[in-house]
């Protein structure tokens, strides 16, 4: 069986595994509530006797030519199997030399991380017999159990005179800042000089070289997320704050079967790639502790994930998943605060969402408790923290990671929200625009944006209150957030009230009672969303552009108010459809729909301006709109509309519809490029007046 795992940003991770696991006292996975339980046939602290050759349970390799990750038995240190590794394979100590970021550290992996081995094929094509020879030798060596070995596979990334004028993006950025209660540099005043250094690790699609401008990244998602984080964590945009933001690449591939590009990056990654990126970020931070520019606090942002519900379940006892959990445990033991995007539904227009229900991984790791100091020591990880910068204790709720869900400008779940996938902590996830004008990124919508909001807010708080424990910072974000009225689906002892992050309210609470010269005294509190979503400036600029386009006669208009078209066909993606990742640039990031209140039938207007990157490649487009009860209305845009969207001389395309009760909507595009077809879901902004 082939297993596909979709990523929720523009990037993805995939794992293909099967078979039974085993208990290991040093690497004992504290599996998530919904993860497969480890077998009880082997007592803790023991290992089964080697199986006879005839009964070997080979790991299933359902993704051809994939590398393998396994875990050495306790007391073993040689990934090369004492020199008996079959020809055609390279053995790599995963957390010593697995990636350029790790190699640059020049230090051995601590504790449990030292037992992970990667086996890379030397040739681009690997036969079944090559895998069998390697498995046989692993078994014969007595150094590594086949029950710990699995392929480290890949998956697709799915996440966010024209509407791309700077003033339009500025309108969206203004709304975004107001809706997250962003704190400005003026609010901080002279207290900026009293801020402590806080490191921010953006684990995404961008390498350090690409972030520094030495090369152009293949996928700009990491830069877009970092810009949102920077706007919140560094309101004054002072270099001393910005310099603490570092990029670590977890998505180095452009297709599931291509080698990693550690400099320009890509759209995809594996569980192993993500595990190495997490370790590199934490170890790099640890190595700089006490040095110039070093920081005693670290926030990690993971705006990515993979689908848990498709195909075979991931076995948490095997190498790929275990390596990621071990890396996150190392991060937790060191004192890092980790925020993870809860995940998006890649096909929100589909009625059957059973395959995309619940949170994605590793957001579901919030169901795993963080290790305490004694557990960290048993894992071989030195417990982090110091007298004035504690890590352990504090808040009673200490999960391994903090999942962050998304809401829109009206505190409604995002249009691409996952059924049963909302955690207790949410943040605005729609129309996220980061950067400094005029160099603003395109708007993104999804839980990738929400995780970035939480990460930026946490870094800002920690810079003023570095004595707070990681769990205390996370709980402060939650406690000062606005209660949306919904209940969480997972994490924190469900049921739990869902609360939306308010940056200003969190900082105000953190600085309450502190000296005003060193901590800003703010009066803000989390509040209900604005009735217009603070989108007034954005829609004013859209109307201005629309009038200009009408005057220039570069508007094409169509009327489909009486034709609903054919409902879209929904289905789970096949392996072949995962070969092309979802591009990082939204097709229609500034599209909107006007729904006049009390209007007449057929007076609702969809306005579209396609990014030039996609003109000529769009084969179909479907609008799915939702009312307050989540009832959907589907419009399949007709061929004349598609032709207009693809025409390079057309500035705007307007379509008249009949969707009088719409509160949210998504455009689902199908794109034909290079002989392959991909799809992209674009949430769009709704104006109801």
Describe the structure.
The chain is α/β, with parallel strands linked by helices and 689 residues long. It folds into three domains: 12-151, no CATH class; 168-511, 3-Layer(aba) Sandwich (Rossmann fold); 536-688, Immunoglobulin-like (Sandwich), CATH 2.60.40. It has 16 helices and 24 strands. It has helices spanning 94-97, 100-103, 128-141, 166-179, 185-188, 208-211, 221-233, 239-242, 271-288, 319-334, 373-378, 447-464, 470-479, 503-511, 536-552, 639-646, and strands at residues 12-14, 68-71, 89-93, 116-121, 150-151, 199-204, 245-249, 268-270, 298-302, 337-341, 402-407, 425-428, 435-436, 439-440, 482-487, 497-500, 555-559, 592-595, 604-608, 618-626, 632-636, 652-657, 664-673, 676-688. An eight-stranded mixed β-sheet has the order 7-6-9-10-11-12-16-15, with helices on both faces. Helix 4 packs antiparallel against helix 15 (536-552), helix 7 runs parallel beside helix 12 and helix 9 (271-288) packs parallel to helix 10. It is globular, with a radius of gyration of 25 Å. This is Subtilase family protein. It comes from Enhygromyxa salina. Residues 265-481 form the Peptidase S8/S53 domain.
